[in-house]
Amino acid sequence: MMDIDLKNENAQSFSEKLNIADKKELSAIIQNFFVEAPREKQDTLMNFANELREKYYERKVYFRALLEFSNYCKNDCYYCGLQRSNRKVNRYRLSAEEILACCKEGYSLGFRTFVLQSGEDSYYTDALLCRLVAQIKESYPDCAVTLSVGERSYSSYQQLYAAGADRYLLRHETADEVHYRKLHPSELSLQKRQECLYNLKEIGFQVGAGFMVDSPFQTYETLAADLIFLRELQPHMIGIGPFIPHADTRFAGYYKPTSHRTLVMLSLVRSMLPKVLLPATTALGSVDEKGREKGLRVGANVVMPNLSPVAHRLDYSLYDNKVSMGWEAAEYLPDLSRHLKTIGFIPDFSRGDYVDLQKKDETL
């Protein structure tokens, strides 16, 4: 069994251990930091994560403008407030004109990445999305466009990439087949989700995967499976946030979420994959008023303020009590930037690409 005493480790040696650990060893490491490790040991883990983040990104924090443009979804994922069977949702779709107006506002605020996110809404065809992406790239050629619109065909992904989309976010949610089945209806499959991620990477996208922490039926072993899958996929971005129950799903009242375990997983992922872009997520900020700051202190280096029209922010209710105002709102970016400086971070208003791609651009 792998020794998980950090006293004789440094950041690099611990990273190397995480990259060769098997599922049983990773499970033991996760359990130790979740329930057994004293404060001093947890601090050491988080210091390792920070050291590795700073090795590749210094103390820079990148900004993404999150634009949630449709809450229609054809899927019925058991945990999601936007599931198609939830008739209490106030459904909306933004027009291309509304989306472009949001991008204009975001650009003027200083954002250089737009994240277009929706449920799996067939209204937005390949042709419509491609036109939209092309318009954004034409208007703001110095910006990156990230899409998060779910599972699509290889051809669809190719068209979106050709239209100018730079990145694609598609959380795998869990890399354990049995666990996946307990969270999703039978028409969805882990195999298809993982296939989409590999397809996106093959096409040329900067790819983001990710998972929930403390989701129903999750175990140390399923979290270990997540780490092994991420190790194999080698994504450019990883989104990790606490599971937050939604009142209109079967998991209503499941538990009261906290930030601790998510912070541990952020530290472990940063340590294992030190070059990855790692957001301090909205969900983390929703369960802990200091969640975003804590996330940045344990290895995260991306924040995603909400650029969606204020009238619809509460309608994009993936989970209960989602924060969308204050520093989670795009219009407060100047205040957020100033605050990050006061706690020792460097606000970076570039596109904020994956570090190896930044270096590639510098040599062109």
Indicate the topology.
Blueprint: H1 11-18, H2 23-36, H3 39-57, E1 60-63, E2 65-70, H4 96-109, E3 113-118, H5 126-139, E4 144-148, H6 154-163, E5 167-169, H7 177-183, H8 190-203, E6 206-213, H9 220-233, E7 237-242, H10 260-272, H11 282-287, H12 291-297, E8 302-303, H13 310-313, H14 333-342, E9 346-348, H15 355-363
Parallel strand pairs: 1-8, 1-9, 2-3, 3-4, 4-5, 5-6, 6-7
Helix pairs in contact: 2-9, 3-10, 4-5, 5-6, 6-8
Care to give the gist of this entry?
Helix content is 45%, strand content 12%. With 364 residues, it is α/β, with parallel strands linked by helices. The chain is globular and about 55 Å long.
Mean pLDDT: 92
Q: Could you describe the largest sheet, including whether it forms a barrel?
A: 6 strands, parallel
Strand content: 5-15%
Uncertain segments? none
CATH superfamily: Aldolase class I
Total strand segments: 9
Order of secondary-structure elements: HHHEEHEHEHEHHEHEHHHEHHEH
Oligomer description: single chain
CATH class term: Alpha Beta
CATH topology: TIM Barrel
Please give the radius of gyration in angstroms: 19 Å
Task: Quickly count the helices.
Answer: 15
**Class from secondary-structure proportions:** alpha/beta
C-alpha termini separation? 46 Å
Shape: globular
Which architecture per CATH? Answer: Alpha-Beta Barrel
Strand order of the largest sheet: 2-3-4-5-6-7
Query: What's the structural domain tally?
Result: 1
> How much helix, percentage-wise, in residues?
40-55%
